[in-house]
């Protein structure tokens, strides 16, 4: 009897999956052939590639402007045309204003952050958090950023003997984490000097890869939200949630009780809670505050760390570019008595071009995602994207397409120079575009530039790995499989 029941269950499951994987065929949309039960993500399931690389490789398998794919059990549309992608994010935003990622505010408050919230709830929170990232606020952060930067220089001087090999991705990460601890969490960490600092260890826990449960959570957040709903798992490991909740609860309770203030992100959240209490509006819970602080912790740490370290990697393989950038940094600092300020960072035009080129080759998130919120007819087409359909923009593949960026493998900051512009603007949006772009992009870029100016003004770097980066598997953002080990020398 058991054998027959098992056979019946297997048959029903197989037929059910066959039906799921016939979705695009039934709707008459050009699609890539799926493999049961992986859809089009077998290499991701087998931990051979990262999420971003696996998605972007699907881009190479078709020439259509949009193509149906299966993110495991979830049908989605891959948008191969960058102009259509930009329309979806900008002019036709009202039909795609949600991301379609996992968000269960009641059961899993940490999933209800600014990245994941849908509709009006996202719009309300975005409006409240935007003041954190104005030019005035960024200027106010400069003393904090420079205090952390000076700690970085002190530590780097102890490593720069020209012989010792240092993982500059790790060093960049520790610099960024010290910044985030101060700016967002409101306390002083010691990540630069102490690799065992709880802030470092927590980030390692947050981005660790390899365990089945971690990969299952990641797949549930980005690919199949139903998986987390079905299993009852939270979007983050309990130890992560407890770590952040303890810090934020203590910070908020201490400041509210003692009427103390500090210029950081936690203070903005406290002020929002006070304002809501005065006006009778719905107040942010401590869980909501913690969820959004953690979002900026993980997103800011990964993006700025990656951009600093990928830039250093490219510069070590492009000595002419490095020399030109260091000359600009030297000249600017000499004209300002060696002082690094918000204003003279903005003066460094070639630095800006280098950061833009790094973000082209190595975008913070290699894919952008949206969910169709109103049935949408694709311009100049008979295809209708139905409400609820997941839409994926393969950002990395678009930015490495020679049709839009000539010689895409070449690191060429000059391609972004306004006088010699050599790229398709509608194909470049490393932080997304439209109302739902990255709220913290200016802060992330500022932290990245300060890190690069500090390092390149004092040290030379020599690579120990080939120019072609080998990416780590089973991750969402792009990360080098072996870090970025480099030899460092003091500049004279």
Automatic annotation (TrEMBL):
<keyword id="KW-0349">Heme</keyword>
<dbReference type="GO" id="GO:0005789">
    <property type="term" value="C:endoplasmic reticulum membrane"/>
</dbReference>
<protein>
    <recommendedName>
        <fullName>Cytochrome P450</fullName>
    </recommendedName>
</protein>
<comment type="similarity">
    <text>Belongs to the cytochrome P450 family.</text>
</comment>
<dbReference type="InterPro" id="IPR002401">
    <property type="entry name" value="Cyt_P450_E_grp-I"/>
</dbReference>
<keyword id="KW-0479">Metal-binding</keyword>
<keyword id="KW-0560">Oxidoreductase</keyword>
<dbReference type="GO" id="GO:0016705">
    <property type="term" value="F:oxidoreductase activity, acting on paired donors, with incorporation or reduction of molecular oxygen"/>
</dbReference>
<keyword id="KW-0503">Monooxygenase</keyword>
<dbReference type="InterPro" id="IPR017972">
    <property type="entry name" value="Cyt_P450_CS"/>
</dbReference>
<feature type="binding site" description="axial binding residue">
    <location>
        <position position="438"/>
    </location>
    <ligand>
        <name>heme</name>
    </ligand>
</feature>
<keyword id="KW-0492">Microsome</keyword>
<dbReference type="Pfam" id="PF00067">
    <property type="entry name" value="p450"/>
</dbReference>
<dbReference type="GO" id="GO:0005506">
    <property type="term" value="F:iron ion binding"/>
</dbReference>
<keyword id="KW-0472">Membrane</keyword>
<dbReference type="GO" id="GO:0020037">
    <property type="term" value="F:heme binding"/>
</dbReference>
<keyword id="KW-0408">Iron</keyword>
<dbReference type="InterPro" id="IPR001128">
    <property type="entry name" value="Cyt_P450"/>
</dbReference>
<dbReference type="GO" id="GO:0004497">
    <property type="term" value="F:monooxygenase activity"/>
</dbReference>
<dbReference type="InterPro" id="IPR050476">
    <property type="entry name" value="Insect_CytP450_Detox"/>
</dbReference>
<keyword id="KW-0256">Endoplasmic reticulum</keyword>
<dbReference type="InterPro" id="IPR036396">
    <property type="entry name" value="Cyt_P450_sf"/>
</dbReference>
């Amino acid at each position: 009897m058991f054998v027959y029941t098992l056979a019946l269950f297997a048959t029903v499951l197989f037929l059910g999956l066959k039906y799921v994987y016939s979705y695009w065929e039934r709707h008459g949309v050009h699609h890539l052939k799926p493999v049961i039960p992986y859809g089009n993500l077998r290499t991701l399931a087998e931990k051979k590639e990262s999420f971003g690389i696996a998605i972007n490789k699907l881009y190479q398998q078709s020439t259509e402007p949009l193509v149906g794919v299966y993110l495991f059990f979830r049908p989605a549309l891959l948008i191969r045309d960058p102009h259509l992608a930009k329309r979806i994010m900008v002019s036709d935003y009202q039909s795609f204003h949600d991301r379609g990622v996992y968000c269960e505010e009641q059961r899993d408050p940490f999933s209800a952050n600014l990245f994941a919230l849908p509709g009006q709830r996202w719009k309300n929170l975005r409006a409240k958090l935007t003041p954190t990232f104005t030019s005035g606020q960024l200027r106010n952060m400069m003393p904090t950023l420079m205090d952390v930067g000076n700690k970085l220089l002190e530590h780097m001087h102890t490593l720069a003997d020209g012989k010792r090999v240092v993982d500059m991705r790790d060093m960049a990460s520790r610099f960024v984490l010290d910044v985030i601890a101060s700016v967002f969490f409101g306390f002083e960490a010691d990540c630069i000097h102490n690799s065992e600092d709880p802030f470092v260890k927590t980030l390692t826990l947050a981005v660790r890869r390899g365990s089945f449960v971690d990969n299952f959570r990641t797949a549930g957040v980005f690919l199949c939200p139903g998986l987390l709903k079905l299993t009852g798992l939270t979007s983050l490991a309990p130890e992560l949630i407890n770590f952040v909740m303890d810090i934020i609860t203590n910070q908020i309770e201490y400041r509210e009780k003692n009427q103390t203030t500090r210029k950081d992100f936690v203070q903005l959240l406290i002020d929002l809670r006070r304002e809501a209490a005065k006006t009778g509006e719905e107040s942010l819970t401590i869980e909501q505050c913690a969820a959004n602080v953690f979002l900026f912790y993980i997103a800011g740490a990964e993006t700025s760390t990656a951009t600093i370290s990928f830039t250093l990697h490219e510069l070590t393989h492009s000595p002419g570019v490095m020399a030109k950038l260091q000359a600009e940094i030297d000249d600017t600092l000499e004209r300002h008595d060696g002082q690094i300020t918000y204003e003279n960072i903005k003066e460094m035009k070639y630095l800006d071009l280098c950061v833009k080129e790094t973000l082209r080759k190595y975008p913070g998130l290699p894919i952008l995602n949206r969910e169709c919120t109103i049935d949408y007819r694709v311009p100049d087409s008979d295809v209708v994207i139905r409400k609820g359909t997941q839409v994926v923009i393969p950002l990395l593949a678009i930015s490495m397409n020679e049709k839009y960026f000539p010689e895409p493998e070449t690191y060429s900051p000059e391609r972004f120079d306004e006088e010699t512009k050599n790229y398709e603007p509608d194909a470049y949006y490393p932080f997304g575009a439209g109302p739902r772009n990255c709220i913290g992009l200016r802060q992330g870029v500022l932290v990245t530039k300060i890190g690069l100016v500090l390092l390149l003004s004092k040290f030379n770097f020599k690579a120990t790995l080939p120019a072609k980066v080998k990416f780590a598997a089973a991750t969402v953002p792009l990360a080098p499989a072996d870090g970025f080990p480099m030899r460092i020398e003091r500049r004279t």
